[in-house]
Design brief:
Elements: E1 2-6, H1 13-24, E2 33-37, E3 51-52, H2 71-75, E4 81-84, H3 87-91, H4 97-109, E5 113-118, H5 122-126, H6 129-138, E6 150-154, H7 168-179, E7 186-189, H8 197-201, E8 206-211, H9 218-229
The structure holds phosphoenolpyruvate (PEP).
Length: about 230
Amino acid sequence: MILAANFKMNHTRASTRAYLQRLNSIEKPAHIDLFVFPPFTALDSYESIATIGAQNAYCAESGSYTGEIGLAQLREFGIETLILGHSERRHIFGESQELIAQKFAFYKEQGFTIFYCIGETLEVKERGEDAIHIYLQKQLEGIDTSYDKLIIAYEPVWAIGTGKSATPEDIEKILAFLASHTDAPLLYGGSVKPANIAEILRIPRCAGALIGTASWDVESFIEMIQIAKEI
Ligand code: PEP
């Protein structure tokens, strides 16, 4: 099982260090792989029971890409795990599928573990299941879904940061659809919290959760780890 904390643009270097120190004070359940994705300025070579990853990176070793970080900056801290295609990158920062696929190919070549995010908008959801399938398939264009270090996070855009998770029935249907296209572990993300994580982790084919808001408080993340331990 996988539990991943996406800090987004939250936490500083100091608070990330304190967070990881507290996380290290628990015993990591053997069957749970933990990941933490701090903002760029808080990346470091931490001793941690969680694997540290980056929330995004440009597809180059280094170069003239103002405001970006690349492979050289990740290597400095031994980072080999990356989120790509997060809906906030797609919808707020306008990342195209073409760019995301280029990043994917570059970091796949480097052997990175890639948390690849896909998910439909509310407008697409309201058009029904076929529309959702077509939309998700487009988000897989140019992505090697047989890559052995690929983890797919299904994150419906309307459920991210809204407090409103998708229903277990809807998640189950989408995960079944995705499983017909890939053998990659499938996560759910979108308002996962201590109150709903148990039912989400019990959904068939659900290999874990990518958690934003409810992971920022380390006690809340630990609570979810303890719940997951029993599943
Ligand atoms: C996310 O950003 O990946 C996410 C799932 O956020 P939240 O848990 O806040 O919905």
